[in-house]
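To the wet lab folks,

You asked to see what we're planning to order before we commit. Fair enough. Below is the target structure as tokens, and below that is the sequence we designed to fit it. If anything looks off to you, flag it before the synthesis order goes out.
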């Protein structure tokens, strides 16, 4: 979804300075759960913020090297700092997927971009494949003119072989769901070296959006966070 009108276009430009992009949005309907905007009044609109591929990685790495000491959850911390700064400049409230209580980011994303989950649970994007993420959102107390998202082509429907369900040595993903403990045990074991070095084998087996695939060091970073290595 392309945003070109002010002020949304200006927000997109501000986010682009750190490799982030707008990932669609919508106006809340009457009767939906009330979320507070920047002043505490009810929010009327939300714009999602995220990434396509690993575009934010160089910006995040430069920020990380400037930190005087190790930081818990550094990528979440960096994302929050960047998005909060943009929110303050444009009269919005920034929220994050890691905020408690958890906000329905995946439901928001499906509504904002018309996406559906892949067999791995990650939303399948018609261009980015599985190589994208949502880093936060901006809540506004005024309605914003946001183009309504059309239902996106769901590439998983056309994928007959489903390599994403066949590449993991321990079958962590299946039609029955995600075997979390089996995955962790494998990643921590001697056979999990390829996963630790280059990311989830099932995710990497997906043929879509290959040009946006995260580099091995980025995938290794995420695997460390996921498996608490």
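Sequence we intend to order:
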């Amino acid at each position: 979804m392309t945003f070109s009108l002010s002020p949304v276009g200006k927000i997109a430009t501000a986010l682009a300075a750190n490799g982030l992009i707008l990932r669609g949005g919508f106006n809340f309907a009457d009767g939906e759960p009330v979320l507070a905007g920047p002043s505490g009044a009810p929010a009327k609109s939300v714009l999602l913020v995220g990434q396509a591929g690993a575009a934010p990685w160089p910006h995040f790495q430069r920020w990380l090297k400037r930190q005087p000491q190790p930081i818990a959850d550094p990528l979440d911390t960096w994302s929050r700092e960047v998005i909060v700064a943009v929110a303050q400049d444009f009269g919005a409230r920034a929220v994050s997927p890691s905020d408690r209580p958890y906000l329905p980011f995946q439901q928001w994303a499906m509504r904002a971009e018309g996406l559906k989950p892949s067999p791995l649970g990650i939303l399948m994007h018609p261009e980015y494949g599985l190589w994208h993420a949502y880093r936060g959102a901006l809540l506004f107390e005024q309605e914003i003119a946001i183009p309504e998202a059309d239902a996106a082509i769901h590439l998983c429907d056309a994928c007959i072989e489903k390599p994403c369900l066949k590449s993991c040595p321990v079958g962590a993903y299946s039609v029955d769901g995600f075997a979390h403990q089996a995955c962790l045990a494998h990643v921590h074991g001697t056979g999990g070296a390829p996963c630790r070095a280059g990311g989830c084998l099932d995710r990497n087996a997906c043929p879509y959006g290959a040009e946006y695939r995260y580099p091995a060091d980025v995938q290794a970073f995420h695997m460390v966070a996921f498996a608490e290595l």
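Structural context that might help your review: The helical segments are 8-16, 57-65, 74-89, 105-113, 180-188, 193-198, 201-205, 216-227. The first strand starts at residue 21 and ends at 27.

Thanks,
Computational group
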